[in-house]
Amino acid sequence: MIPLNESTNLNFSLNIVNANNPLQKARVVIEADGYEIGIPFTIEKGEANVQVPVLEGVLPPGKHKVRMELVIGGVLYTPFFESLEFGGPAGSKVIQESKKASIEAIKKAANRSIQEAFDRKIADSKIDKITKATDITTLMSEMYKFKS
Questions:
Q1: Which string of b and e fits 104-129 if b means at least 16 CB within 10 Å?
Q2: Which domain holds residue 78?
Q3: Which residues fall within 8 angstroms of residue 54, CB to CB, at 6 or more apart?
Q4: Contact present, 113 and 79 (Cβ < 8 Å)
Q5: 101 lies in some domain
Q6: In the chain, how many domains are there?
Q7: Is residue 69 part of a domain?
Q8: What CATH number does residue 57 fall under?
């Protein structure tokens, strides 16, 4: 559970692999009834740092859908989409344990999904090159590259 009555710093490892383009934008989006709250964050040396501000009076307590958005090379990736619990007193042991579990869930899902998204993007790019081949030599060369 992420407390609403104090700011919370979420730190976790986030490895973006196979990225030939730089990260242009990173944010966490919290969905509420009729609106969304976007929180930009930084990634430095494989460590993500999300500073969740005080949301008391802005976000009602309860479960809310949360997603991570990364813009890399002009393409929007959403590697994490999960429901997380918000509310309660910040210092409680239940909140601290729940916060740790939330960070672990974010970390695992994000790293797995980012890799899958890049793998799909690379495959799409290779398939596009195969379909645009105009001669047999180029076609065979691109097909060989696709298998490797």
A1: eebbeebbebbeebbeebeeeebeeb
A2: 8-118
A3: 4, 5, 6, 7
A4: yes
A5: yes
A6: 1
A7: yes
A8: 2.60.40
For 30-68, what is each residue's pLDDT tens digit?
Answer: 999 999 999 999 888 888 889 999 998 899 999 999 999
Q: What is the mean pLDDT of residues 115-122?
A: 60
CA angle 116, 122, 126 (to 5 degrees): 140
- Specify the pTM: 0.61
User: Which residue is it, tokens 């729940």?
Assistant: 98
54 SS3 class: coil
Instruction: Give me the sign of the Cα torsion angle 135, 138, 140, 142.
Output: negative
Q: What is the pLDDT of residues 1-30, one digit of tens each?
A: 888 888 888 888 877 765 577 788 899 999
- Assign 125 to helix, strand or coil: helix
- What distance in Å separates the CA atoms of residue 41 and residue 23, rounded to the nearest whole number? 11
Q: How far apart are CA 113 and CA 107, in angstroms?
A: 10
